[in-house]
Amino acid sequence: MPHTLDHFYIDGAFVEPHGRERIERIDPATEIAMGSAALGDAEDARRAVAAAHRALPGFSRTSTAERIGMLERLHDAVLARTGELRDATIEEYGGPVSRATWVSKFAAQTFLDAASTVRDYAFERPVGHSTLVMEAVGVAALITPWNSTAGSICGKVAMAIAAGCPSVVKPSELSPLQSLLVAQAVHEAGLPPGVVNFVNGRGDAVGSALCTHPDVAKISFTGSTATGKAIARMAIDTFKRLSLGLGGKSPTIVLDDADLDTAVPAALTAAFQNSGQACIAGSRLLVPEHRLDAVLDRVRRGVAALRVGDPSDPSTTIGPMVNAAQFERVQRYIRRGIEEGATVVTGGEGRPDGLPRGYFVRPTVFSQVTNDMAIAQEEIFGPVLCVLTYRDEDEAVRIANDSLYGLHGYVFSSDLARAQAVARRMQVGRVAINGMQHDPLAPFGGYKASGWGREYGVQGLESFLEAKVVMTL
Predict the structure, then answer these.
(1) Annotation: CATH topology of 3-246+450-471
(2) Angle at CA 173, nearest 5°, toward 227 and 189?
(3) Which residues belong to CATH 3.40.309.10 in the chain?
């Protein structure tokens, strides 16, 4: 259904933007226009920061119990919009319905997870002969991606509220409807004016204004590593606190004792989750050299069973890429893999048969890949999997760690102790063993070019806090 989205949420009210630019909204599954959305400018960002700054003195002094009450109301308000958020996720970036349903429920759950984290957190505690006081860092700019909009917005807002920080949300300009639905839930939850504000816009306009504004004390960004570097450069002049959740090129290590009938389907799920448009996608599959043929046989059969198509169809596994630019980016990487000498096991360039329209990509698997190839080192953000071989466990770990990134990893083995030992040697922020586990109370983030800091859990809460020591004689 076409939507014309014309309002931002600032200081507790839906207001007309100052910015005059608009963006056309295109359904990635059909390439049909779905309406348009207003984009803000630097003045809209300044208005939102001013509202958050006015709210800071009172909100930062609220009690933990008061903030938990807000989080619980937000949970209820977002949960009531689960169906709308699911449909908006499918409409705006073609997320498969199974993924869209999970994300919409996860978005609501983040508020209860934050409440659980903060409930027993000691904001004041003795340290030596002094008192350690953890207090809100100040106004936070929350900059979120298009591939998990509702979940990312809610996760960041939840922790900012738990810490007592008013915030300005700058969602991806590709996700205005999801952002509006969350803003409506915030309004319905009855938070004080200015505690949470939303300004849609481009990074070079709204994002830059937030990253350089002197009244913004904290930036929490999730997105590409290139943009994260630019944000870090802008933030340094005013010494803003930074949390950067960036890209990944996650390795999946299948050890030589793994049950391939279990491990390979799970590895494909890790690789092609969210149509491959996921920072934690297991896009490098490391397998024992002597088991390569057995792995590839299962890979061919597994990929052949994947359904690419209408993301609203429950039988669909892989939906379209978010837009034409992302479609072309994935096509370029597939061509580059072929040029680099990798072997196409399945898939390849072009759209899948029977899908002449829409930004659909053929799920593609390469073998004969070496870790110095671009397809093995660079984040593609699409349904492209590289299969690499190793001779022993030490080489597997070396290849896994030979990456600019270090966000996530996966290990498959019939020996849990052995899998855990390998996991501990991997230079990544999270490792899932024999599956795709998620722990919402544990910190999430990465090593190296995958970012700075952590989200969720106590570490995520403390990223919105400053430590003050009070000493007395």
Answers:
(1) Aldehyde Dehydrogenase; Chain A, domain 1 (3.40.605)
(2) 110
(3) 251-441
Residue 466 phi/psi, 5-degree rounding, is -110, 145
| Helix or strand run (H / E) with residue 471 | strand 465-471
The two three-digit tokens of residue 338, written as one number: 């072929």
What is the CATH topology of the domain spanning 251-441? Aldehyde Dehydrogenase; Chain A, domain 2 (3.40.309)
Q: What's the pTM?
A: 0.96
CA nearest to 45, candidates 141, 138, 136 = 141
Name the DSSP class of 278. -
Q: What share of the chain is helix, strand, coil (3-state, %, to 5)?
A: 40, 20, 35
Maximum Cα–Cα distance for the chain, whole Å?
78
Q: 18-59, pLDDT tens digit by residue? A: 999 999 999 999 999 989 999 999 999 999 999 999 999 999
- The structure tokens listed for 319 are 């939906």
Q: What letters, b where the CB count within 10 A reaches 16 and e where it falls short, cover 11-24?
A: bbeebebbbeeebe
Could you report the per-residue pLDDT of 347-368, keeping only the tens digit for each? 999 999 999 999 999 999 999 9
pLDDT digits (tens, 9 = 90+) for 168-225: 999 999 999 999 999 999 999 999 999 999 999 999 999 999 999 999 999 999 999 9
Token readout for 427 is 């230079």
